[in-house]
Records
---
Amino acid sequence: MQENRNTQFTSRCDGRGTVCIDTNVVLDCCKDRDCFEDVRVYLCEDGEQMLASGTNIRTKYAKTLWAFVGVEEVPFNCGFYRITVRYYIEVGFEGCVGIGKSKCFNGLVVLQKEVVLYGGEGRAISFSSDPENNYCSIGNTDNMKTNDPIAIVETVEPIILGSKVVDCSCPCTPCCDCCSEIPDVVSNYFNGTFNTADTGHNLYVSLGIFSVIRVERPTQLLIQATDYSVPDKECPPAQSNENPCAMFRTMAFPTSQFRGTTTPLGELPTGNGGGGGCGCGNGK
């Protein structure tokens, strides 16, 4: 059987040589800063009550709960794909309900953007072995894959740019089609159903989002292997110390968590102008 081996991928006994790996190659990518201005916030019953009776509503936070990423081939442009990204963002608010009293509530914002990136060409179909499929149970699981491009979106938490309450007794921006199809992974964060009517008072926010979008495709690459990745460090045994204070004294002080600036310590000013030599200058 030795003669059946592919000598192109063989390596020497010391783990060095040319090896073939199965990975994803990035074909195209882009970065963007999107400003979504005056986007409708969809509230549940408790949020609607706060909006109707509360005053001085302020925005506290914005958190991305989930994102849908779709890939669709652009007609008459071989190799190019339209990437549709739909963000589902939870926005937290605080409103005054009386003198010295406040109440928090949250709502949902749905944002969508589209970009066109190059994803290459190819329609190969591959099948892989599955331990659950043996000779007598063929076809119990789906082991078919394609080499279609994959879109990946990386983002940070949204930045709140502003908010306002609008009286929608006059015509307002209608609900988008995507707000009526909220996935379960998003709706589970809220208590109740969302009100999508365009009457009464509606809440709007403006958000800024930084994102990086890339398109990848499965491929096989030949690389030069220098050595196998075997760690040299041995696994130390866990120490069970019954004295919690003794364990606490062994922990390093988290200096970086108390530092309010990213300026290296070596670059801090050392003058005597009211700072006492601690880097606190006299305001000049």
---
Amino acid sequence: MQKNDTATKPIEKDGLKPVKHKKRKRPRKKRYLFLKFLILVLICVVVFMTCALYGYRFIMEGMAQAKVILTEETGIVFKVPYGASTASIAEDLKNQGFIKDTRIYRILSKILGFDNTYKAGKFLLTKDMNYYAIMARLGGEPLKNPTQDIRIPEGKTLLETAKILAEQGYIDGEKFLKLCEKSNTAFLFLKDVKQTGARKYPLEGYLYPDTYKMDEGWTEEDLIERLLKEFDRVFTKEYYDRAEELGMTVDEVITLASLIEMEAKYPTDYKKISSVFHNRLNSQELRKLQSDATIQYARVYEGLGRISTVLNKDLEIEHPYNTYKYEGLPPGPICSPRKESIEAALYPEKTNYYYFFATPDGTNIYNETFEGHLRDQQKYGVSGQN
């Protein structure tokens, strides 16, 4: 029995195939992407809000910690040297147990705008402070210190003095030296002292060696002015008059005094050594002062450093301060002399000495002749150094 296909097949009209009606699909893929985007935005918002909340709490907690009043009994003194970078401060903080991660500290310091705000000085911190509190403290005012004792050592070149003070955290060494390169006409004793090719620092010799009490907030300019004022106080009108009587400028007197300062170990030698140098300066044949101290000065400024004993080979150094090669006084002082040396330069003992040398214990032996000088050198075993 045949089935009637007409009941199951669509009827064709006019020779055309019947049109099948498809169901319209919903854009599921677009809805899926949009949903992912919404989730991502929601995650970002949550992360941002969490970070913002944490950052807010971090900053507020840090601000509260930074405002806590500390004393030297309740806090720990942390010192920031002059010219310290954020990296070096972070290292010091870690080494002293205030922070654990220097990299995080440096990043936060940069992001939060604390770089270049840190001040030199002493600060009170505690080890439970967060990073923000520490940064806020170090960017604030250092501990009040009404006076600070600063010792300017005698017998040191200006380069050596700047290095000592910088290492002790008192000054920015580079800034200090830059200031010492400038001529200073505010003081009578400096009016004719200028920078030359042979003399880089016009202030060499005039930063009077002593211990000074500097008031709170002093700068390198303040320190230099204080030292020059002290020199001005020490170098009296009597000294100006005596220098004129000797036919010497103030700078020549201080240059000679600096040689005496470096050559004399005992007070009894000051005026005798001065007499040797004066006798040579006034002679026709022995104009070279032949001072080992000027060799040491030349070595310092050539970057060679001081040596315990000047040998014959050291006398060949090519430098304008080498008084074994060049006659008369060197171009300028080789250290800042004390009052005793200045007085010795102005008032030498009257002698006929032209030679002297130091024995191993620092005693100076004087002679009028070269033959006597050689004889005594052999006697004390200080000749023939090569």
